[in-house]
């Protein structure tokens, strides 16, 4: 066989579509095999092979971690059993005196986890509006160990300027972890903007098919990646090989899905903004969005998530969510199918009314995850649902 030419620097689209393709040495399988074995043979006395035990390492899971590390521009990644396990992997290494600065409008599960660990005196936490520079500066004066960032935020789609935040946090001696779940590396790459870690709920856009719960942490350098990998083995929260295999399969189409889904999202946001029964639309792609300029600069698109406030009361909300047909009333996001959620009674119910009010999450706010359906079907579904409110 002719020798292959030297490997070029590959584009992210190519990594997503083809990392690990035609790399099987046993049977020359084109699609990477699924290794379920929990244990691996030692070739001889005191001679470990590349793998020993499945909690510590698995070839299928490693293929997914490599692909994610490359896509995010990090030097290594750990694949965990859920997005929460990924965030907790970072928190689990902290000590009683370590302070975590988190967004006041962070993912409900992240807030619950931080509060639970703080209540048990395993760390300290303070929640701030990270888009408010004086509030952030005051929090950084307390010398945090870790600053957790979510941008766009959930569900209000507030944008945080990652690069200056990282510079400020580093100057204060803190590490920065960005939850990139809402955009995926197809749209935003926080490590290039200065982040030390990127965390993901791979459950969402990375897998994209609403059939796997999973997570990942990507680290900027090899030392941090090795430390996390070791800690993941200590606590035993690695993702299953089958889940990794499915997620890698989903990842193949990430760029094509994101492209199409954000196109649909822009059409939906534009439609809603013009509708008389809609009071406000939160989508960074709209000029009216306060984070539009930053999002244009730091993202390659505006993502497929948006939220909006209905002009009306909770009665109107009930009527609307129960009348739509193409959108499904369900939590989660990032799948090929469009979902509709009511944060106050669903994703952000646990947060409590007071905290929701502080974060600006009203009872008439609805969140949409836009899928791959025909644009016209999505718009017609919303149009018909909104028409029910004025009948
Ligand atoms: C879903 C989600 C998580 C948690 O991930 P799981 O896979 O459900 O554990 C964390 N952060 C964000 C932004 C999410 O959307």
Automatic annotation (TrEMBL):
Q: Which cofactor does it need?
A: pyridoxal 5'-phosphate
Question: For this protein, what is the EC number?
Answer: 2.5.1.48
- Protein name stated in the entry: Cystathionine gamma-synthase
Q: Which Pfam families match?
A: Cys_Met_Meta_PP
Gene assigned in the entry? metB
In terms of InterPro entries, this protein maps to:
Cys/Met-Metab_PyrdxlP-dep_enz, Cys_met_metab_PP, O_succ_thio_ly, PyrdxlP-dep_Trfase, PyrdxlP-dep_Trfase_major, PyrdxlP-dep_Trfase_small
Q: Which PROSITE patterns match?
A: CYS_MET_METAB_PP
Enzyme class name: transferase
Record flagged with keyword Transit peptide: no
| PANTHER family listed in its UniProt record | CYSTATHIONINE GAMMA-SYNTHASE, TRANS-SULFURATION ENZYME FAMILY MEMBER
Q: Which UniProt keywords apply?
A: Pyridoxal phosphate, Transferase
Extract the NCBIfam families matched here: O_succ_thio_ly
Family membership noted in the UniProt record = Belongs to the trans-sulfuration enzymes family.
Listed GO molecular functions?
A: cystathionine gamma-synthase activity
Taxonomic classification: Bacteria, Pseudomonadati, Pseudomonadota, Alphaproteobacteria, Sphingomonadales
Tell me which species this is from: Sphingobium cyanobacteriorum
Give the superkingdom in one word. Bacteria
- The answer to whether keyword Transferase applies is yes
